[in-house]
Specification:
Helices cover 29% and strands 33% of the residues. By secondary structure, it is an alpha/beta fold.
Length: 269
């Protein structure tokens, strides 16, 4: 259950009325890795399998879907249980100063220890400036894809309380779409789906309704996605990372307009 009906008072001009409205429900989900609690994610309890896969990939715990032995959902206990084919030892010292770092909340950001883990994964991959330079696309395709994403985020239309993310092929055809209370969770769901379906993400582009923060950009870089576009603005941390890792970052995609912050050569008029 991820939404419910409530009765509200609506005031419009000089009129007051009681009406029914739909609100989203945020749920704390425990991600259990190899039988041990890894992180608690405050999220929309939908597409949880893909959320778990995407999170593990984003932080560098897995490098492909083949690293996973088994995945199951405990809907009563609000748990995602994932077993890997090999043991994994998390650097517990990263979390000693702030135990709350184990919680990924709806503020749409990830804590410093997780950023360090993601950065270490990127350094191990040696992704610096290795993003797909041969991937080029017309700006018109980006604009239409973002509009398609907005039209397809049904829960946002109903509640206004979620972010959306989607992934597209070079023709602008939607591969997958996801919604969540946190924009980072929506992106993890997309990445998890793509991994599950063996999508070559080096030949795709990612869209989102949220701001292009460093946390969100790190996930796109980790997935080797060459273009990341949003209807919203880019933040300095996101621009800096996108520039350094060769990602084309696009904000304010609205109608026929867009702002390209980094590596504009991929976008043709």
């Amino acid at each position: 259950m991820f939404k419910r009906k409530v009765e509200i008072t609506r005031i419009h001009k000089n009129n007051r009325e009681r009406i029914n409205d739909i609100i989203v429900i945020e749920t704390p989900i425990d991600l259990i890795l190899n039988g041990k609690p890894l992180v608690n994610i405050i999220c929309l309890a939908k597409d949880l399998k893909y959320l778990g896969i995407g999170f593990l990939y984003s932080v560098g715990i897995i490098n492909s879907i083949q690293d996973i032995e088994e995945i199951s959902l405990d809907e009563i206990g609000n748990k995602i249980n994932i077993s890997l084919k090999t043991d994994f030892d998390l650097n517990e010292s990263l979390f000693q100063e702030s135990p709350l770092s184990r919680v990924i909340d709806t503020s749409c950001g990830i804590s410093s220890p997780w950023r360090k883990i993601i950065k270490n994964a990127l350094d191990t991959q040696n992704l610096q400036n290795q993003n797909n330079e041969s991937f080029h696309i017309k700006g018109e395709i980006i604009s239409k894809a973002v509009l398609n994403m907005q039209k397809s985020t049904s829960l946002f239309k109903e509640t206004g309380g979620v972010h959306g993310a989607a992934i597209f092929n070079p023709k602008g055809e939607m591969i997958a779409i996801a919604e969540d209370i946190g924009r980072h969770n929506a992106i993890d769901k997309i990445i998890g789906y793509a991994l599950s379906k063996n999508v070559d993400m080096t030949k795709t582009f990612l869209t989102t309704t949220g701001r292009l923060t460093g946390d969100s950009v790190l996930k796109a870089i980790r997935a080797n996605i060459p273009i990341f576009a949003s209807i919203s603005a880019a933040i300095e941390s996101g621009v800096r990372l996108a520039f350094g890792y060769g990602l084309t970052l696009i904000g304010f995609v609205r109608g026929k307009k867009m702002n390209i912050y980094t590596h504009p050569y991929r976008i043709h008029i």
